[in-house]
Amino acid sequence: xxxxxxxxxxxxxxxxxxxxxVLSSHVFRKQQRKPVNQTKLRNLITGKVIEYSFHxxxxxxxxxxxxxxxxxxxxxxxxxxxxxxxxxxKRMSFSAEVVGDQxxxxxxxxxxxxxxFNDEIIGLKLPIKVELKVTEAPPNIKGNxxxxxxxxxxxxxxxxxxxxxxxxxxxxxxxxxNTGEYVERAN
Length: 187
Description:
This protein is mostly beta strands. 2% of the residues lie in helices and 56% in strands.
C-alpha cells in the first residue's frame, strides 16, 4: 500500500479494481488545511486520464504490473498480431486500442514489452526511440523555409512525421515513440 505522499510519477496503482499509471503528482497544503496529493492518473485499460486528489488519510494499493517480451509480426484489418519471441506458434492478437498510437512505429520482428495485470495483457511498451528508414521524402526546394523548415516524410512502417528539410529518402532516422517526433539522424 502506498501512503498519499508516496503516489508519485511512473508508479502503478489500483483504484476501483482498475490499474492506473500516475502521470503527475503534487503534494501541497492549502492555508490551514491538511496536505493533499493532486494527481493525474491514466487508466491502463481504457487510456482515459483523470484527476484525483489523495488526502492524508487515504492509501492506494500498488498494482502488480509485470512485463513480458512479445514479438510483433504484422497487422491486418485492425488486429495487431504478436508471438512469443522463442515460440512463434504461440500467437496473440490485440485491437488497435490496446496497441495505441505508438503502433505506427512498429517494425516487423520487433520485440516489445507487453504489460500484464491479473494475467491479462493490458498494453504495450515500445522503446522510447526507434530507428526507421525514410521511404518517401519530397525534394528540397531552395527558399522554402518560410514554413519553419520542415517537411512531411513517410517511414518504412507507413507512418508520416515532420522532419527537417535535409532528411532525404533512404536515410535512417530516430523517432520518439511517445511524441511521434523526429529526434536525429541515425546514420
